[in-house]
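new request in #modeling-help
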Amino acid sequence: MKLLSVARLLARPAASGTATMVLPIVAFGVSTALLLTTLAGALSFFRWHGETGFLYQVLAILASALLIVPLASLGGSAARLSARRRDDRLATLRLLGATTGFVARLTVLESMVLALVGALGGTVLYLALTPLVGLIPFRGEPIGAAALLLNPLIVAGVIVGIGLLAGISAVVGLRGVIVSPLGVRTKQAAPRMRWMRVVFGAIVLGIAVFSVSHPGLFGGVAVFIVMLVVAFVAANAVLGLAGPFVIRLFASSALRRASTPQRLLAARTTLESPKAAWRQVSGVSMTSFVAVFAGSALATASSVSAGEMDAQSRVLLTDLRTGVYITLAISFLMVACSVGVSQASAILDRRDLYVSLDRLGMPVTTMNAARVRAVLSPLRIVAIGSAVCAAALVLPLAGISMVLAPVSMLTIAASIVAGILVVWLAAAATRPVLRRVLAEPAKLAE
Amino acid sequence: MVLILEANALTKSYGDTHALAGVDLTIQAGEAVAIMGASGSGKTTLLHVLAGILAPDGGSVTLHATQPPLVISELGDAARSQLRREAFGFVFQQGLLIPELTAVENVALPLMLNGVPRAEAEQRAAAWLGALGLGGMEQRRIGQLSGGQAQRVAVARAQVIEPAVVFADEPTGALDSATSSDVMDALLGTTSARGRTLVVVTHDEGIAARCGRIVRLRDGRVVETRSKVADMEYIEGETR
C-alpha cells in the first residue's frame, strides 16, 4: 500500500512539466504500434499456401529480422528515457530513509506502468493504422485491413512483453546506479576503439555477401535459407562491431576540421560515445544495404527477362520490390522515432547546461544545429555508407541496373534520401522542447 | 569614476511575487559589486535583468560602455543575446561547462560564437588558462578537473572575450572555503584588479567582503549599500 501511495504521489506532474512522463509513454506507444504493425504484416503472409506461399513467408521473416535492430533501438530509447525519471528522486528518497528494496520496487513499478500505458496507446494506434496499411498491394491486390488484425492473444502478449522488458530495463539501470552512483555521468576520457574490428568485420561481411550471392554453391533451399540467416546474423554482429569504429573515424576527422561552434559541438558529442551514436542509427544500416543489394538484383532481373516472365513471376518481382521499400521505410521511421525521443530526453537531461549556454549568448539556432548535426552525421555515414558498400559488392549488377532500370535504382536512392529527411524532421521536431526549456530561466532564477 | 551600468526603477514580477520592486543602481567601471540578500530577495533576478538575460517589467538598464549608451531593457531577445555574447562574461555556481569539450575548447567557445577563427580562439583561450594556473590542462575534459579547476576554466571562459562586465552568480557556492578563496582570487585578479567590472551575487559574507561595494536586497528593494571606500573614509575621519 505504501508503495502505491508513494508511486501515486510521484506520478504528479513535477516542476519540469509533464514531459518526463509523457515522452516515455509516447515512445513505448510508437514502439508498440510499429511492432504490432510489422508483426501483423509478416503474419498476413502466412495465410497463403500456394506454390509461392513459402517464399513469401521466408521473405516476411527476413524483413522482420531486418527490423529487429531498429525496433530494439527504439524500445531501448523508451526504456532509458523512462528509467531517467528515477535519477533525480532516487537520492531524495534514500535520504528520506527509503530502503534500496523499496526504491527498486517503486522504480520497476513506475517503469512498467508507463510502458503499459504506452503499449495500450500503441495498440489503439496500430488498430487505427490498419485500414491504411491494408491498402498496400501484395499478389496484385491490397492486403486488406482484416488480414492485418492480429489474434488478441498475440496483442496481449506484446503488451505484457513490453511491460516486462521495461521492468527488466529499470532493474538493470538501477543496478548501475547502485553499484557506481558517481561513475554514471562523470564523463572522463572518451572511449577508444581498435581498428582490428574493421578488418575482422570486413572479412566476415565479405564471406556473408559471397555466400548469399552464390546460392548455387549450397545444395538445397533449406541449406541456402540457413546460410542466409547465418549471413544475416553475422553481418549484423559485424556491423555492430565495426560501425562505432567507423563513426569515430569520421567524427575525429570532423573534429579536426570543425570551424564553427556547432560543428565542434556535434563532433565532440559523437566522439563522446560513438557506440551510442551507432546504436541510434544502426537500424538503417542493414536495410539500406539490403535495399541496394536486393534492389539491384530485382531491377536487373525484371529488365533482362521481362519478356519471358509469366504473370506470377512478374507479381513476385513487384512484391519483392514493395517489400524492400516497406522494410526500408519502416526502419527509417523507427530510427526517426528513436531520434525524436532521445533528443527530447537529452534536452531535458541537460536543461541547466542549455540555459547556461543561452545566458552566454549562444543563439538557439546554434544549439539546434549542433544537436541535429550530431544525429545526422552518423546517420548519413551509416545509410549512405551501407548503400555504397552494397553497390560496391554487387558492382557489375548495380552498374547494369543503373543502365537497364535507372528508375528503380533512383527510387531506392531517393528512398534513402527521404529516410534521412524524415530523421532530420524528427530531430527538428524537438526544437519546441528546447525553446520551452530556455523560456523557463525565470523559475530557476530564484 | 566612469559610469558603466545604470539601473533605474526596475520592477519584475513572477505572477503575484514581486521579485524587483523599484531598484535603482549605478555601477562604475572597474568596480567589484556584491549583491546580497536572503533567498527570494530578488538578487538573482536583479543580476539577470542587469545582464539582459531577463527583460524587466518596468524601469530601464543602460550600458554606458558603448557610444552612444545602450538601453539594454529596450532590446529584443536576439539583440540581448548578441550583447551577452559580445559584451558580458558569466560565471555560474556549477561552472556549467560543456562536459564533452576540452578545457581549451570550452574557453574558446565564446570567441568562436563571435566569429573568431578556431585556431586563434584556442590560442587566446590557452593563454587565459595559463594565466589562471591551468597551463598543461588545456586538453583535459571537464570531468578530469577538480571543482576548483573547473570553476577557474569558467572564469577563463568569462574573461576570454574581454567583456565590459563579468556577472557571477554564486561562483563559489559549490566549493569548500579554501577553493572558494582561490576562485575568488582568480575572479577579482582578472576583473577589478585590472580595471574591469565585476557584479557578483553571493550568500557568503566573506566573499562579499572582498568586493568594493555590497548591495543588500530585501523583498525586491535595495535596503543597504556599503562601500569599502566610504567605510575607509569614515574610519579615517574617526581616527583623525
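bot summary: Chain B has one domain: 34-47+83-239.
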